[in-house]
Design brief:
The complex is a heterodimer. Chain A has 10 helices and 12 strands. The longest helix of chain A is centred in the middle third of the chain and has 29 residues. Chain B is 39% helix and 24% strand. Chain B contains 7 helices and 7 strands, in the order βαααββββαββααα. By secondary structure, chain B is an alpha/beta fold. The termini of chain B are far apart. Chain B folds into 2 domains: 161 residues, Lambda Exonuclease, Chain A; 40 residues, no CATH class. The chains are: A alpha/beta, B alpha/beta. Chains A and B meet through helix 3, helix 4 and helix 10 of A and helix 3 and helix 7 of B. Chain B: It comes from Myxococcus xanthus. Chain B: One of its GO terms (biological process) is defense response to virus.
Chain lengths: 342, 213
């Protein structure tokens, strides 16, 4: 898996996708916009109504390319995928592990180690470039995250793991104002809010996490795991709990890092967001496109996989982590090693 | 026993098995598959050959993408190409399997075993002897004839039996990293360096928590 597996995002109304040879051809209003080789694709994400030929759909399903559809308001509708990868035996192992308290605690703890470890690393990276008056706040956050990491070694049940994760998340979000450069005016942050997000930073976080969750769900399904049955996140109807579990370790290094770099570099400004009458804040169409392009680029960035000791990309990382989780559930690995940002 | 309880071995699995038992189990038990440049170009080559239908010359008939199976051995799959040659005695058509391979001739017996398994299927389906077939190598653009002697037949039946055993156990054997792993398209899914206790996730986690502390 040396290539970065790409996502093709469809944002323009009236887009038509068809297959020519081994390529997807993208046409908007009868104008050819792009041609992408099928084997470079991992998924096609339709963020607006799009038209795919049955022939292309068949090729995508055969090649293991997921096609997902979002409603006009950005609500996730469906992901179409071919014959499920993997094997019913692996899914049975997954369900058994989810029912086994000791194993669930061990996996959940590993997931939270990944989440806190990477959040801490992200904050430390940001501190290097921060103005002196903000460095102290960021050091304090890193220190608290270390403390929570140490405390994780002592937790014994799932409630304690979840409780610690909640406290750590609050401490981490408290550092967000200190992550903003002075130049980034109009991006106040007074805590994480969602459903709906009520300021631009939260709008970007929600959008980014939604994309990441779909990438993680696709990666899990690709190795044959059931994205709905998680360890850290309890089962809830309609929730992709294992995808939420897997994305914990990637929230800070992929989405949060992206959001702050867009804001701090001035690529997105307060004027790129609109506020609905009830207070929900959403990205305007052009801003959404800017965000998607930046997200795609972030996935191409190379990174070293600390456990495997090999180079990969942020886009490939969820696939490798899904494999490692499957290997652990199958008993070939003595634990789940989360992805470590260095 | 109802028919649905039976396990069948895919003709293509024999090649995987002879390459590496873990690879065969990953593909056929765990259902892992990944297309890379090699398998894609192999597939394109096959698509050209695989077109169902037949073309004819005098005394010869060619069928492509032929579905084959042996009830006795419980093995089934598709042959790239079967040539039917008019029997010298005029007693009908003798099948002659031809398997198309990307690349060049390989040292192992995997290709010959896969072809021989096709011959065993053809013998059972047509009730005739199939003494010979051929392998066609894309790079060399040449055919190599293969005689189905008693020894090759035995090795083929052994391989089929071994694949049945892999499917019955439903376990993916752990294999230590070997030189052949470098040429394996499944290496990124197999992670041969990680399994078999060669790396510990527990140690990794402990180190990480210590470093952050």
């Amino acid at each position: 898996m040396t290539t970065a597996l790409n996502t093709l995002f469809i944002t323009a109304e009236g887009t038509r996708l068809n297959k020519e040879g081994e390529c997807v051809v993208v046409t908007v209003q009868d104008q050819k916009k792009a041609e992408v080789p099928l084997r470079h694709l991992r998924s096609v994400v339709c963020l607006t109504r799009a038209w795919l030929t049955p022939e292309l759909m068949e090729s995508c399903l055969e090649a293991g390319i997921h096609v997902s559809f979002f409603g006009m308001t950005g609500r996730f509708l469906a992901r179409v995928e071919g014959v499920p990868g993997g094997n019913v035996l692996l899914r049975r192992q997954q369900y058994r592990a989810a029912d086994d308290i000791a194993r669930s605690v061990a996996i959940s703890r590993a997931l939270v180690v990944g989440k806190l470890g990477n959040a801490r690393q992200f904050v430390l990276h940001a501190r290097r470039d921060a103005a002196p008056e903000r460095q102290e706040a960021l050091s304090e956050t890193a220190r608290r995250l270390s403390e929570h990491l140490r405390a994780l070694t002592r937790v014994e049940d799932l409630e304690q793991v979840r409780g610690l994760e909640g406290i750590a998340a609050r401490d981490y979000f408290e550092s967000f104002p200190a992550l903003l450069k002075k130049s980034a005016q109009g991006f106040e942050f007074d805590g994480r809010n969602r459903r709906p997000p009520r300021n631009p930073l939260n709008a970007m976080l929600s959008f980014g996490y939604a994309l990441l969750a779909q990438d993680c769900a696709g990666a899990l399904a690709g190795v044959g795991l059931d994205p709905a049955v998680g360890f850290l996140h309890e089962d809830r109807p309609g929730r992709l709990s294992l995808a939420l579990d897997l994305m914990e370790e990637f929230r800070a290094p992929v989405v949060d890092r992206l959001v702050f770099s867009l804001v701090n570099r001035g690529q997105l400004k307060p004027g790129d967001f609109r506020t609905e009458s009830a207070g929900a804040v959403l990205l305007k169409d052009d801003a959404r496109k800017t965000f998607l392009v930046a997200y795609q680029e972030a996935k191409q960035v190379g990174v070293r996989h600390a456990f495997l000791g090999q180079e990969t990309t942020w886009g490939m990382a969820p696939h490798l982590q899904s494999l490692l989780l499957a290997r652990h559930l199958r008993g070939e690995l003595d634990g789940y090693p989360p992805f470590a940002m260095r | 026993m109802s028919a649905d309880c039976e396990t069948w071995v895919a003709l293509s699995a024999l090649q995987h098995l002879l390459y590496c038992e873990r690879q065969a189990a990953l593909i056929h038990v765990e259902r892992q598959w990944r297309e890379d440049v090699n398998t894609a170009s192999g597939r394109l080559l096959h698509e050209r050959v695989d077109l169902p239908g037949h073309d004819a010359r005098v005394g010869r008939r060619v069928e492509r993408a032929v579905l084959l199976g042996s009830q006795r051995l419980r093995v089934s799959g598709r042959a790239d190409m079967v040539e039917y040659q008019r029997d010298a005695k005029g007693a009908g058509w003798r099948p002659y399997p031809v398997e198309v391979k990307r690349g060049r001739r390989k040292a192992g017996e995997a290709d010959r075993v896969q072809l021989c398994a096709q011959a065993l299927c053809l013998e059972e389906m047509h009730g005739v002897d199939v003494p010979e077939g051929a392998l066609f190598y894309g790079v060399e653009h040449k055919r190599a004839a293969v005689r189905f002697d008693a020894e090759l037949r035995q090795r083929t039946e052994d391989a089929i039996a071994r694949m049945h055993e892999v499917l019955r156990r439903q376990e993916v054997p752990v294999v230590v990293r070997a030189p052949r792993c470098d040429g394996c398209s499944l290496e990124p899914l197999c992670l041969p360096g990680v399994t078999a206790g060669q790396r510990s996730a527990q140690d990794f986690l402990t180190r990480w928590m210590d470093e952050a502390g």
